[in-house]
Design brief:
Layout lengths: L3 E14 L2 E14 L3 E5 L6 H9 L6 E6 L2 E2 L8 E3 L11 H5 L1 H5 L4 H12 L17 H14 L4 E5 L7 H18 L2 E6 L2 H7 L2 E5 L7 E5 L14 H19 L1
Parallel strand pairs: 3-8, 3-9, 6-7, 7-8
Antiparallel strand pairs: 1-2, 1-4, 4-5, 9-10
Bound molecules: adenosine-5'-diphosphate and magnesium ion.
The site of magnesium ion (MG) has 3 residues, from α1.
Length: 256
């Protein structure tokens, strides 16, 4: 049985601007299940980050309901882990101080928070840099700190907004493999945004594509690959066919 982790029912949302309303979602329905790795893909400006802001509670729908694990949640802040598009590490705090933020916010003693983080540094590839400042780290390392901080929020639903888009190709691949290993170990539900079709296919169980605007429906593509996966799996004919299908959908969306 699929247990719903996140559900949006008949959600409409618009931004207000000088020129009037900018509709993003219209009577929008969407569901992901516990333990799934689901990716959202779409051209920039299609509303991907907005969808995340609605799920986290940083924005509220104009109409409709959002459920987390079958509970109608009007106040969703703090119930899902959110890694925004920029890593948003505080430049004046060291790595361990940045990672400790969610624990401090929960009222944990600094010493206990640091102890808990020390145990995770190696797993996150951050041994020895805990007293550095963010600017002293590579992009990949900063993303791992940001991800560690998201994990420490304790939420089992994680929303990751283009976490790897600023990384070079090789770092990106090693981060993708690392993320899959983390996900398999922790059995969280992950909702991931990217505009990289290969990344979406490599990581996900299902992919959803923004195809119209305002959006009422996301096109769904499943990924017929078992796990664990290796990058070479993407060369299989069935995967190449899915990849072309996705690219054509995105092309049609951009030129419409
Ligand atoms: P994506 O993440 O897919 O690139 P966004 O969700 O960030 O897209 O934005 C969707 C649309 O909403 C864009 O056209 C963007 O310009 C507009 N938008 C985003 N944030 C705001 C805001 N705070 N006020 C007004 N318009 C916004
Ligand atoms: Mg965005």
């Amino acid at each position: 049985m699929n247990k719903p982790a996140v559900q949006l029912q008949e959600v409409s949302f618009h931004y207000e601007s000088d020129k009037g309303k900018i509709p993003i979602l219209q009577d929008f329905n969407f569901q992901i299940n516990e333990g799934e790795f689901v990716t959202i893909i779409g051209p920039s400006g299609s509303g991907k980050s907005t969808l995340f802001k609605l799920i986290t509670g940083l924005a509220q729908p104009n109409e409709g309901d959002i459920f987390l694990r079958n509970q109608l949640q009007a106040k969703r802040l703090g119930h899902v882990g959110y890694m925004p598009q920029q890593d948003l590490l505080l430049p004046w705090r060291t790595i361990i101080e940045n990672a400790a933020l969610p624990l401090e916010i929960k009222g944990m003693r600094k010493q206990d928070a640091y102890q808990q983080i020390q145990l995770l540094l190696q797993e996150f590839g951050l041994t020895g840099v805990e007293n550095c400042y963010p600017h002293e780290l590579s992009g990949g390392m900063r993303q791992r700190v940001s991800f560690l901080r998201t994990i420490l929020s304790g939420a089992s639903i994680l929303l990751l907004d283009e976490p790897f888009s600023a990384l070079d190709a090789i770092t990106k691949i090693s981060m993708q493999e690392w993320l899959l290993a983390q996900w398999q170990k922790r059995s969280e539900t992950i909702l991931f945004i990217t505009h990289d079709v290969n990344e979406a296919l490599f990581l996900s169980d299902r992919i959803f594509i923004f195809i119209d605007k305002p959006t009422s429906y996301l096109e769904e593509v499943n990924v017929p690959l078992s796990r664990p996966r290796v990058l070479k799996d993407l060369d299989e004919p069935l995967l190449l066919e899915r990849k072309n299908y996705l690219i054509n959908l995105l092309k049609a969306r951009v030129s419409s």
